[in-house]
Amino acid sequence: MPDTSDKKEQREPRAQQESAQEKQSPLEKRIEEGAQDVVQEARQDVAVTRLPWYRSIKRAYYLLGIDALLLVLFALLATFVHFHPVVGIDVTITREFQENHSPWLHGLMTAVSYIGYQAWLSIGLVVLAVLIFWIVDLRLEAITLAVVYAVSVILTALIKIVVGRPRPSVGLVEVFRTLNDQSFPSGHVMSYVAFWGMLFTFGIILFDGRRWWRIGLLVISAFFIVLIGPSRIYLGAHWAIDVLGAYLIEVALLSIALLVYLQLDKRGVPAMRKEHSWLSSRKFARSKGHRPAQQ
């Protein structure tokens, strides 16, 4: 005889689920359906604008040739400031930056550095970006962003200990906020370039077109990447060589991360994404070398 008890057990969860759905108010149903529509639309928007992997690699390799030299330059700078903690050109550059005492400039430089002083805000932005990438099915990108940021923070702490360069002193330049850790390289610059630089990189190599969210991503990311260096010099938190060294080592780190990411993407690691119908069509289109049509 057929086992009716198993069938009964299978029907019970379904009945409970249907009963729970019936208890939902019309407003709750509309909210749930609306949220699903927003997520689905975002996923489709990302899929439509995403470039094929071979075009992404082509764009990335243009940068990798230049970035190979940056690590060597960073090593030379680190060695130099280890034996020469105070450099005349650093003092001159900082004083030139600080000649302008305009309230708007001081406010701008302070605002740009603010995120880096608040650990909860910095980590919160990273977590938010990772969640957004994950929701729109860019899970390899989410993991890459999180790993790059974490490695950058650890690398900054280690280099500071090894180089051991002191911060700018009040006797030489204006110091708007006293900090007790080492100066080389700039932690603000490294963390900003790790986070905003990774977002900017994804915006360039993954997506095409002039959609508002892509333009906004590129503009905001470029804003923080460009201004964080001058901000640290203006506020007397770092010397110019500290800032330059941070840019060099962080760009080199991004290049390595980008190379690893592209290789994983090429080998199909993103297959861990959920199999939506639109995603399947996108994968087919990528295998054929063109983008899927918008559904």
Task: Provide a quick synopsis of the model.
The protein has 295 residues and is mainly α. It has helices at residues 4-23, 26-49, 53-67, 70-83, 88-97, 103-117, 119-135, 139-163, 187-205, 212-234, 240-266, 277-288. Helix 8 (139-163) packs antiparallel against helix 9, helix 9 (187-205) runs parallel beside helix 11 and helix 10 (212-234) packs antiparallel against helix 11.
**DSSP E strands, number:** 0
Shape: globular
Nearest-integer average pLDDT: 79
Low-confidence stretches: 274-295
Report the helical percentage: over 70%
Count of runs of 4 or more consecutive helical residues: 12
Describe the sheet with the most strands. Answer: none
SSE topology:
Layout: H1 4-23, H2 26-49, H3 53-67, H4 70-83, H5 88-97, H6 103-117, H7 119-135, H8 139-163, H9 187-205, H10 212-234, H11 240-266, H12 277-288
Provide structural commentary.
This protein is mainly α and 295 residues long. It has one domain. Helix content is 75%, strand content 0%. The protein has 12 helices and no strands. It has helices spanning 4-23, 26-49, 53-67, 70-83, 88-97, 103-117, 119-135, 139-163, 187-205, 212-234, 240-266, 277-288. Helix 7 (119-135) runs antiparallel to helix 8 (139-163). The model is unreliable at 274-295 (pLDDT under 50).
Which structural traits does this protein have?
295 residues, mainly alpha, disordered C terminus
